[in-house]
Structures are given as C-alpha cells and as structure tokens.
Specification:
This protein has ten helices and four strands; from the N terminus they run E-E-H-H-H-E-H-H-H-E-H-H-H-H. By secondary structure, the protein is mainly alpha-helical. The protein folds into two domains: 148 residues, no CATH class; 127 residues, no CATH class.
Length: 319
C-alpha cells in the first residue's frame, strides 16, 4: 500500500500496480494501437496511390506519430488515465496526490514512453519499474503520476460502527448543510480505523474532528457524549437524511441501523444509559464521560416556585 496525502490533507492508501500487470496492459494497448495503425495505413495506401513517393512517406510518418503516439495520449486524457489495456487489467493512472490526470500528464507520459517503450522495446521501462519503490517508469516520474490498481478486494476495514443506541435520533435537528465533503471523508476514515489507533491518539483525533464538526453545525458537542460516539451518531443522521431524500418516508430512516449495538470485538458490551459502547469509551487516563447526571433525569436543586419547569431542558416558562 502507498499512502498519498491530498490537498485537503486526507491520507489515501493506494495500491501501486506492479510490473506484470503493467506490462500486460501495455501489451494490450500496443496490440490495439498496431491494429488501428495497420488499418489506417491500408486505407491511406489505397487512397493515395497516385501521389509521389515523398508524399506517401510524409503521410506514413504522420500516421505513425498520430496513431502510435497521439492516440494513447488522447485516450488517457479523455478517459482520465484508463486506456484499453488498463481497463482490462483494472489499472488507472493518477497524479501523485491521487487526483485524475490531465492532458499535460498524459503528454509527458506518452512522449517519454516512445523512448523507453517503443525505441528500447520496454527495457528502460522495466529497469525503471524495478528500481522504483512504487513501480514507476520514467514517464511517471517526470509527469508526476502513478499507476494504481482499482480492483482491490473489499475488506471490513471500511465498516463504520454504529453509534450507541441511546444516541439514536438525538441529533436530528442539526444543520449539516455547512459541513464540507472533506470533513465527512475525514470523519468516516477515522471511524473505520479508530480501533487500529492508539487509544490516546484516537481520542485526540476524535476531539479535533468533533470540534470541527460542531463548529460547522453551530451546535456544541454534548458534554456527556464521547467524541467518537458523537461523530458516529452525526454520520448516521446524515446517512438517514440521504436515504430519506432518495427513497422518502420513514422507511428509509428505519433502514439505517440506528439501534443496533456494536457486535464486533470488545465493543459487544454496552454500558448503562449514561455510557457508550466500549469502542467509544475514553482511553486510559482520560477524564470519564457519562458520569454526570443526565439532563433528562431532571435536577433536584430546582428553585422553589418552578413547578412549570420542563424536565430535561432547564427552560422555565414565564409566570
């Protein structure tokens, strides 16, 4: 795996393509390009038989350059790094930051590819791929690109654990319109990997993400809710809203596993009403959460004459 960092400071784990798959993709591309070149050459020879030898030579050179050099460049530019051979092998050319390539990247790769692939029969490209830690040839080095695998077996590392059942529907009134996609991506990546992190590091990351999310939503993080559980509950609320927009009705919200406790690893045991699953608990040495009396239990120190006070809100209506 190769870890790349995007412009939004999001770490991406990409699997670089190795020499065998890249060689097969290049071979398929060359076979397709040669087939097109032979077909175009036959058509030109038939239609330009009356021209002199110099004109026919110029047309043959132009055909070679356009088909075998310009063709792959145009295909990679229009397909954003997926030629015919790469699509067959499940590969794609991306930038060093993981983004799609543009014309200049495809142009540099194509021009240098003429030297290291066509003129040297791929010897230079093979040597460069062996030397490079990520299997890059010279065209990738000068263009700032990387060939990665798109077909990767799906693992359970992308599973976002559900929030504690007692947080179901608690954040239904949050305004999530101002939360950018980059922050949602960072939160999902944290939730899928938080069990692999050191407890102290994971706790600090959750606090930072929860603070950023609370700043975007305009509502503070509840004091009796662990930051990881808060993030999971807000992500689930967003998924429920997207499902409602897509399918409509309350059935879409019911499809989101809101009240399903975590059943994997140490998170199988849930604490009492004021706590969270063990996976969301604080690290060793961190201040305990959920130990304060819940607001829904009311307060025993309510001032006299506040019989109209609504439990759990602290709001006293005027007399």
């Amino acid at each position: 795996m190769s870890e790349l960092v995007t412009g939004e400071a999001v770490a991406l784990e990409l699997r670089p393509a190795r020499l065998p798959s890249r060689a097969l993709a290049v071979l398929l591309d060359l076979v397709a390009a040669m087939a097109v070149y032979v077909a175009v050459t036959i058509v030109l020879v038939t239609s330009t038989a009356s021209l002199d030898e110099a004109a026919q030579t110029a047309l043959s050179i132009a055909t070679f350059v356009l088909v075998l050099v310009g063709g792959p460049i145009a295909v990679e530019t229009l397909s954003h790094g997926r030629s015919l051979g790469k699509m067959a092998c499940g590969l794609r050319v991306v930038r060093d930051d993981g983004g799609p390539i543009r014309f200049r990247h495809a142009l540099v790769r194509g021009l240098i590819g003429v030297i290291e692939i066509l003129m040297t029969f791929g010897v230079v490209a093979c040597i460069a791929s062996f030397v490079s830690a990520r299997g890059r040839r010279l065209g990738d080095v000068f263009a700032g690109t990387l060939v990665v695998r798109e077909r990767i077996p799906v693992t359970r590392t992308g599973f976002v654990p559900p929030p504690p059942p007692w947080l179901a529907g608690r954040f239904s009134g949050l305004d999530l319109s101002a939360v950018p996609d980059g922050l949602w991506l960072a939160i999902r990546q944290y939730l899928t990997r938080m069990q692999q992190l050191d407890p102290q590091v994971g706790w600090s990351m959750a606090e930072r993400l929860a603070s950023d999310l609370a700043e975007r939503t305009g509502a503070p993080v509840p004091q009796n809710v662990p930051p990881a559980a808060y993030l999971a509950a807000v992500v689930q609320e967003r998924q429920a809203r997207e499902a409602q927009r897509a399918f409509g009705g309350d059935a879409a919200r019911a499809a989101i596993p809101a009240a399903v406790p975590a059943t994997h690893g140490p998170a199988a045991s849930t604490e009492a009403r004021g706590g969270a699953p063990a996976v969301y608990g604080p690290p060793v040495g961190a201040p305990e959460v959920g130990s304060e009396p819940s607001a829904v239990e009311g307060s025993s120190e309510s001032p006299a004459g506040s019989e109209g006070e609504r439990p759990g809100t602290g709001f006293v209506p005027p007399a």
